Amino acid sequence: MSIDLAFWNNPYWEPLMITIGEITLIIIFGAIIVSLVLVIISLYSIKRKRLYFPKLIKSGLVFLEGLMKGFFRLLGLEDREMLSFFIKLHNSLNTSEFERIPVAERAIFLPQCLRSSKCPAHLTPEGLKCQACGQCTLGEARLLLEKMGYKIFIVPGSSFIKRMTKKYHPTAIIGVGCLTEVKEGIDMADKMGLVVMGVVTLKEGCVETLVNWSDIYDVATIGIDPALIPEDLHRLAG
Ligand code: SF4
């Protein structure tokens, strides 16, 4: 009992608590100010369609994601715009690393919702086995991308991505899908140590969705010898 009293009566106790309180307040205010500055830079980047200080924003997101998302919402940025910005930011930071990875070590995951509703292909443990029947653009795109050296998977969900990357060990992947899928895929691939680039589809849904093929080709041709890029690629993209 007397030891307890001596502990609480220690003259250093009060100044210590005041110091801890002051440090906590400084950290909270510091985090708020840094988040606000990063959010302003992000909003300016979105407005100018150009990324400013991407590394700084990404580091901020690692530590202050919740706070920054709160500020984004407070300043009127919709969740979709926020996700789209995060994906662009991620792609921009990964571009130089992706560029150095040979095409033989890359894979592309396309969503099966891009296929025609009359698609005759069957789902296999490695995704949809496209028969290039000509009823949708997936057939020709797949052949062109494979000609470039890519391993292509047409898949119904991210569980396939995990399974196929464990089986084929690509170093880099391009994930195509709707905003939420791409963001989740990027987070998953990051955790798996893969260099990932995301491409968002133009139309969402489960059947006959749309993608701008030139968005995929712009990413797929990064770091590729121009001699290896099929001539038909840009015709199809157009
Ligand atoms: S081209 Fe391939 S994915 Fe498209 S409908 Fe035909 S078999 Fe299905």
Summarize the structure.
This protein is of the alpha/beta class and 238 residues long.
Polypeptide structure, described:
With 238 residues, the chain is an alpha/beta fold. The protein has two domains: 2-77, no CATH class; 93-237, Rossmann fold. Helices cover 56% and strands 11% of the residues. The chain is built from nine helices and six strands, in the order ααααβββαβαβαβαα. The chain has helices at 2-8, 13-48, 54-74, 79-100, 138-147, 158-168, 179-191, 213-220, 232-237; strands spanning 106-111, 123-124, 127-128, 151-155, 172-177, 195-200. A four-stranded parallel beta sheet has the order 4-1-5-6, sandwiched between helices. α2 (13-48) crosses α3, α3 packs antiparallel against α4 and α4 crosses α7 (179-191). The mean pLDDT is 88. The structure holds iron/sulfur cluster.
Helices and strands, with pairings:
Layout: H1 2-8, H2 13-48, H3 54-74, H4 79-100, E1 106-111, E2 123-124, E3 127-128, H5 138-147, E4 151-155, H6 158-168, E5 172-177, H7 179-191, E6 195-200, H8 213-220, H9 232-237
Parallel strand pairs: 1-4, 1-5, 5-6
Antiparallel strand pairs: 2-3
The structure holds iron/sulfur cluster.
Rg over CA atoms, rounded to whole Å, is 24 Å
Largest sheet composition? 4 strands, parallel
**H/E topology pattern:** HHHHEEEHEHEHEHH
Proportion of residues in β-strands: 5-15%
The number of E-state strands comes to: 6
Estimate nothing, just give the exact number of structural domains.
Answer: 2
Tell me, briefly, the overall form: elongated
- What is the residue-mean pLDDT, rounded to a whole number? 88
End-to-end distance? 83 Å
CATH architecture of the largest domain: 3-Layer(aba) Sandwich
CATH class term of the largest domain:
Alpha Beta
Structural class, by secondary structure, is alpha/beta
Which ligands occur here? iron/sulfur cluster
Give me the CATH fold name of the largest domain: Rossmann fold
| Low-pLDDT segments | none
Percent range of helical residues = 55-70%
Count of helical stretches:
9
